[in-house]
Fold:
Amino acid sequence: MSRSKANEQPRVLGLLGLTMINIVAIASLRDLPQMATYGVGSIFFYVLAALVFFIPVSIVSAELATAWPERGGIYVWVREAFGEKWGFIAVFLQWFQNICWFPVILTFGAASLAFAILPEGARDLSENKFYVVSVVLVTYWVSVFLNFRGLSGSSLISTIGTSTGVLIPGLLLVGLAGLGILQGVPSNLMANGDRWIPEMTQFSNVTFAVSVWLAFAGMEMTAAHAREVRSPERIYPISILISAIVILTVFILGALSIATALAPGEYNLQSGVTESLRLMLGRYGLEELSRVVAFGMAVGVFGSVNAWILGPSKGLLAAAEDGALPKSLRKVNSKSVPTRILLIQALIVSLLCVAFTLQPTVAAAYFMISVLTIQIYLCMYFIMFMAALRLRRLHPEKRGTFQVPGGKIGLVAVCLTGGSSALFAIALGFFPPAQLRETGIDPTAFVSFLAIGLVGTFCIPVLISHFHKKQKTKN
Structure:
């Protein structure tokens, strides 16, 4: 199929659909137990991450998406700023971190499903490697084949997933915690952390907070769907604003709610949300309802995966259409879905899932791959911020309907803030968290894994670009 024909796609996404994809892709409840360990200090980390990362990413993405509303997203922005090679590196980082993220989020879904099936044995089942890997593989491959049908079906699944996986359990968490406080139920909030500004003299005490950056990441992802959005220049900014408010509210209140229910030492990263809901619903004889909610959360994870499968893959497709990848990867089906790229992606995800079994516990694998995901993604964001600065200088005529407030000075301030926070979070991620000593993670192995993974992820697109360029020269 020719490139022009591939780009002729129906505009199926409106404000509601785009906002729901944003929320379900970003506002996962999976990171709440990690942040709840800081008690009231979690507010500080969420607000800090929102100010120095989430807001900069959101408004810069809005400017770039409305100025360059074409399929490809991050690839197009960086290509226009620094050339095809760097555009390919940026989109590869986005695509590959997505691959690392799938096993992490699906592990959370497997834990929620375990609770729905067998509440009493949920913690043991969520640490059973065979169970976790089986659920991850089956769920992911089903999602891949569903996405072969195009974005309209994926959008519907994402909308359902937002309700069952984020909004309903999030409202239940907050409502039950608030009701408990009004009724005088003893709270563990201050026991988890009574410092509004947490102790930060030792990096190992705040490494968990790096997960906030990943929790807030992804607002740029829907730019890859720009050609399927009705009136993108108007809908993007409004969608981002609504999404940001909902996401920040869910994160802060959700983490505080878990902290009121669970005492220090009772946390399980994969199943902390369901355990909190079970405990709070049990106060009113509604413990069985927690199983229904847990199943809804598992469905929500399914919706989140669906929201993410196509976006970065379309960015990689744009790179292939530009000649940065072999022609064979340009193949799309009748729904303009890059089927070959999705199949390669699924094979790599499957290999990563098998790698889960090499770690001492599921929690250890969960955390190590999660941190690597953050590191890779933050590198991409740093490139994006630098690209935004260069694009404003190179193409002042490319003005979307939304621009970062404050003119050129405002853009410089926002990009430097976002870029600096990304670099700081990358450095912080190399310090093994004090809270995970019991998982069996060896500090040296942890740092080596991150360093090798990060360097290797950069080397892969450089080598692909180098050899593919040589092959084109020969031909």
Q: What stands out?
A: The radius of gyration is 21 Å. The chain has 18 helices and no strands.
